[in-house]
Amino acid sequence: MPLSLPATINIREPRWDQSTFQGRAKHFFMVTDPRNLLLSGATLEEARRVVEDYRAGTIQPGLTEDQLWRAKYIYDSAFHPDTGEKMILVGRMSAQVPMNMTITGCMLTFYRTTPAVLFWQWVNQSFNAVVNYTNRSGDAPITPSQLGTAYVSATTGAVVTALGLKSLTKHLPALIGRYVPFAAVAAANCINIPLMRQRELKVGIPVTDENGNRLGESTAAAQKAIFQVVVSRIGMAAPAMAIPPVIMNMLEKRAFLKRYPYLNAPLQVGLVGLCLVFATPLCCALFPQKSSMPVRSLEPEVQDQIRKKDPWLETVYFNKGL
């Protein structure tokens, strides 16, 4: 007779040690697996039921530890960690590789004309806005007007940045021109992410103790969370936008692409996809999902609020978003 599954497995935390880069990388390879996009609604709801039942102390008969962890990672890939709501399909981290390989591949292929730059930067920043909203930290609602204002300002700033960089590099060598999309994406991430998450910067994000007990909201924690996400996103884009241009620049000088020019875009997309399969989880793993900071680094009023609840607490934790 199989042994009963213990009720002490902590599925609120990842399966692997998040204090190490290796543990975080294993975790994010699971979360960003594009195959999660193919799971049916029934599979997602079943995973949610398994996870929520287990957290409530109800263990389904015959459930194994591997099945429990599989359900947890399916749940994590589709449901927001703070609100519990099902996330928009294209905004999930498992959509990062297929969506970004297509958009980035097209940005790197169609970069020579202003209309093409304008269109693909708009598509990219619109996609980023969806991702930033979907993976925001905290559970406070965002009004449609706040979301609309953030989207317009973020996308406009990013597109203007791209066009400005293109005009500065039009007299430079062709290889330099190929890096305009990366420079634009890096600059745009610094604009788009803070703007789409500006509510967090104004009112703060939830901070908790080690056991997940909510202690208050902190704008200092929000600043650290958004900074870490910006760094991760730029790192995520770097290999996919830095390596393919060099390879494509060499290929375009050879007879192969001159003979088969229609292979330019598929090759570009394929190279970008290969980079993103590894860059996406590895750059998500640069910082722990459950980030932390000393209580003394929080705003004075938040420190006072925490001291009243736990005078000896030295570190608080928060979900940084993705």
TrEMBL record:
Pfam families: SFXNs. InterPro entries: Mtc. The keyword Disulfide bond does not apply. GO terms for cellular component: mitochondrial inner membrane. GO terms for molecular function: monoatomic ion transmembrane transporter activity. It is found in: Mitochondrion membrane. Its main location: mitochondrion. It comes from the Eukaryota. The chain crosses the membrane at residues 225-247, 267-287. Belongs to the sideroflexin family. Mitochondrial serine transporter that mediates transport of serine into mitochondria, an important step of the one-carbon metabolism pathway. Mitochondrial serine is converted to glycine and formate, which then exits to the cytosol where it is used to generate the charged folates that serve as one-carbon donors. This is Sidoreflexin.
